[in-house]
């Protein structure tokens, strides 16, 4: 069966600006609307960068500030690209992450200290340098390895100094020798020296023999090579196209696959059938009903699992809706699992009814192939016109197909 669809064809022109992704590695990039690490396949991972020195902003005007945060309203900072780092105008501080999200700008010259206790008992931080202790209560120093500074890690992962019988400890921003009875646990590696109790790492300024103890930095350097031309919209022109649609109405889940819209209701039912091509290796989106990344009425996601389909169901706290069209997640996420095989359809039905004991809350029952597998609670907003994505605009798609998608028993109204 062929369906004739009329749509708006948008022409694009190239501007002088570029868009770049701040790639953290392992196919994760920084989101340009909340600074968190998400799949690089998502559309909201591109920052506009123009010239040698530029602000880093999304198309919606969310920019990175001098504090290393994303904001609509605060003054954006300017950065230059130097040796895979994004350096602020001061020339001394750089954009940094803890591997999960943006953190406050850090000194560009700050270096993590690789560490190991070698066969001689030296706590080495480089080929010819070791950590030295002097007395309990005194700070540690960097110096030449010697037999007055023999260390060992005990069964509690405390680092014990043989001569003083003290252990490494963190005191505010210092690292010192302290009584072992109250000392912290540590993890040594070729990447860093990490205090497990404080969740902080040891750093040094290479220009001075000075230690820093602070929250661990995962990234000061990024892969910034993924650059594409920024596009701006030219006048729209109407056009016609013919597209083939399978007789059974199957839709492959994909990135930014905008199907249409619904007007949400207080009590609602969401139904669809899903067939998996494979189980996902990361967090993936199945359906997203909403007008922003955190605007969920609801959102259904898949999480990585080797043998089962692990679903996440997320809602929205309506009294925290923001002008930007985003909102705060609420009462969740709620999880349910099904023992699924690939290339086989499973019928999913989610029924939400008003829960009288808590304002703006629905009791939700999830049915798989007609079997009630979970009762939970969720909030979404009523009387709200929301976009429907088979997948998401902001998260990589689940490797699956869906069909027979209905909201309150009716097919989703498509945008023609």
- How many strand units? 41
Count of DSSP-assigned helices: 0
Architecture of the largest domain in CATH?
Sandwich
Please state the CA-atom Rg, rounded to the nearest Å.
27 Å
Concise overview:
It contains no helices and 41 strands.
What this model shows, in words?
The chain is mainly beta and 416 residues long. It has three domains: 13-106 and 221-229, Trefoil (Acidic Fibroblast Growth Factor, subunit A) (Trefoil); 111-214, Trefoil (Acidic Fibroblast Growth Factor, subunit A), CATH 2.80.10.50; 246-414, Jelly Rolls (Sandwich). 0% of the residues lie in helices and 53% in strands. The protein contains no helices and 41 strands. The strands form eleven sheets. Strands 28, 29, 31, 32, 33, 34, 38 and 41 form an eight-stranded mixed beta sheet that branches. Strands 27, 30, 35, 36, 37, 39 and 40 form a seven-stranded antiparallel beta sheet that branches. Strands 13, 22, 23, 24 and 25 form a five-stranded antiparallel beta sheet that branches. A hairpin with a 4-residue loop joins β22 (186-188) and β23 (193-195). The radius of gyration is 27 Å and the shape is elongated. It starts with a strand and ends with a strand. Mean pLDDT is 78; it is low at 1-16, 230-247 and 319-332.
